[in-house]
Design a protein that fits this description.
The chain is mainly β and 256 residues long. It has helices at residues 68-73, 146-152, 156-159, 203-213, and strands at 2-8, 11-18, 25-30, 38-45, 50-52, 60-64, 83-87, 92-93, 99-101, 108-110, 112-118, 134-141, 144-145, 165-172, 181-186, 189-195, 221-223, 231-232, 238-243, 247-255. It folds into two domains: 2-52, FAH (SH3 type barrels, Roll), CATH 2.30.30.370; 60-255, Fumarylacetoacetate hydrolase, domain 2 (Alpha-Beta Complex). Strands 1, 2, 3, 4, 5, 6, 7, 8, 11, 12, 14 and 17 form a twelve-stranded mixed β-sheet that branches. Strands 9-20-19-15-16 form a five-stranded mixed β-sheet, with no helix packed on it. The chain has a three-stranded antiparallel β-sheet with strand order 13-10-18. The longest helix has 11 residues, at 203-213.
Amino acid sequence: MRLARIAHPGGVAFASVEGDGDDAQVLEIAEHPFGNPNFTGKRWPLADVRLLAPILPSKVIAVGRNYAKHAAEFGNEVPSAPMLFLKPSTTVVGPNAPIRRPSDVGRVDFEGELAIVIGQPVKNVPAARAASAILGYTIANDVSARDLQKSDGQWGRAKGFDTFCPLGPWIETSLDASDLSLKAEVDGELKQDGRTSDLVHKIPELVEFVSGVMTLLPGDVILTGTPEGVGPIEGGQSVSITIEGIGTLTNPVENV
């Protein structure tokens, strides 16, 4: 199932996306998408609604340097354990929403990533049972103010600006995410071309590790890391990240 969050003529709702292209429809879900969703019977053509961020997490937990070649392109070693940092919930925006690039922070980079969406409250879940904790997967852009990341020595400010975590276009609940193509383009030019099989710390290990540190709540998001090829973005550009089996997340960039 493809779970989306939409703005429709009557308000905002979760929905299931069915079909593709011009025939795609969205079916409204009552209340929330966790467990066995109940449908209201309302539906609209996908073209008649606006896709929002598919989930509003209580927290976004990100994993740094989880692709060896990305760590190497900045002269870093791969950490022996997952390197965690947090992005505020206010960084989250949806498809086609602008990434608002502050004009006074120096270089700002895109980072295409596979995102895990948690489906139930979990604490200390073992890797062997990690799949039961996962609602599905979506696409993320871990936007980063690179100069601040270097100067601050910790990443809260560099990763924490409003709009610095686009998510979407929806959550795919039926997916083996262990070996998927991940590509990122800026203005149509290919910048990143990796596979999730190159993750140093794999998805079950990440869920185990993160849930050993903090309780994960339904809708929480874990960003799994980015392949090599990240680079700067400027106002007027557009970033598109495509992950096999999910779709494409596109966001314009605005200078503010």
